[in-house]
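The instructor's notes for this session suggest beginning with a concrete chain rather than abstract definitions. Hand out the sequence below and ask the class to guess, before any prediction is shown, which regions might be ordered.
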Amino acid sequence: MLFVGCDWSDKWLDFAVLNDAGTVLAERRITYADIHDPVAEYQAFLAPLERRWRSAVTGIEDTGILFARALATAGMTVVHVDPTRAARHRSALGVAKSDRADARMLAAMVRAGIYRPVVEGSPDAQALRALTHAHRAAVAARVEAAHSLRAALTRIWPAATAAWPSRLGGLRSPQAMAVLAAAPGPRAASALTRTRLAELLRQAGRIRTVDDEAERLHLLFCRPVMLLDPHVEEAESVRIRDLVAVLDRAVSRAAALEGDMHTHYTRQRHYPLLAPIPGIGPVLGAYLLAEIGDRPEERFDSGRSLAAYAGVAPITWASGSTTRVAFRRASSVHLRSTLHTAAFSLAMQSPGAQHYYRRRRAAGDAHATALRKLGRRLILCLYRCMSIGLPYDDAIAFGYDPGQADAPTLQRRSPLAPDEIGHARQLLAEPGATVTAVAKVLDVSTQTIYRHVLGRPRAA
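After discussion, reveal the predicted structure:
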């Protein structure tokens, strides 16, 4: 049996090979620039050392680098050595830090069993994880581009930042980007006619109430505003037009990646188990499945281990009569943030989750603490469902019988206050009043007026 320690860097890999007795059999440095296939070179290096060289265990501190992933794909055994434990081990032994010494130390730790096995998901799961990380980056770039455009507009044209409501997409809506690309400054916008505005809105995909929207924008753009020197405004307009183009590309890139991610998400074998979860759509579902993987029962010893990995299992510090419960920060950042959003969405759509959340708040928990406890419950349910192949059931997850009279029901808070509802009814009683016009006055959707003012059910 061979135990190999691999110390990696951006330019080369250092290897040290130990046998069962702890004797150093060989050492080697492989430079990326000199060798096109380090995996083949590494296998050729091991072959003369022992007859069963293919069963060698290779320990490395970062199993996410290309060499480690390619080595695992080639059928070699790769294990993960925790960098923090390796640093403490080096300090305890008093070993001076160097690439060669680190490789020997990692090989000794692998021989002693101080490592964690690496359980890779299926190729479909790895592909989904790559796409979800790309989608996260695209969404972050889209948010950054929107913030940059808003900041640039605030410098020369603050009224444009509030011209399009956030519930319709704000500045990243197709209509906003079409108008700003044609008129990136206040002088250019005031010169737009109603006909030109209606044409731009139709090109952006608007179909209904085009003339009304064109009239609203025309009246907004014709109002007196603070103006800069024309040359300065022209230069700022060039900058805004460029930022609009950057935002347009960021929106298109995020939308395209979301489509590819959804396609890969529906191919996963655990997709039917996660699809019935209320409030967990294709984006959150793909994020959760990508971070958990499709082999959670092999990757994690229990649901509690998965909860600790997700950062929803607190750490208890006890010394004598003092006990302190602290937040677990050593966890997966991606899974922790996704689980927080998923718990919030679940509490809005699931009767059992909403009842559990309200019960935790009534017990004195803060909002974030209640969501963290709800996320722990969700992650334990997911581990159970994925381990035994059982689809998610809200009644089983939160322990209630839907047929009972005291079963929790979904309670939605009205977006309109009682005085706003009365005002809306007065407006609707006026001659010629429409639901659409009243919804615009109150800055809500027409469905809100139908449901909370007129008492009609939600439209299908």
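Then share the key points. Strands lie at 3-8, 12-18, 24-31, 57-60, 77-80, 116-117, 315-319, 322-326. The chain is about 55% helix and 10% strand.
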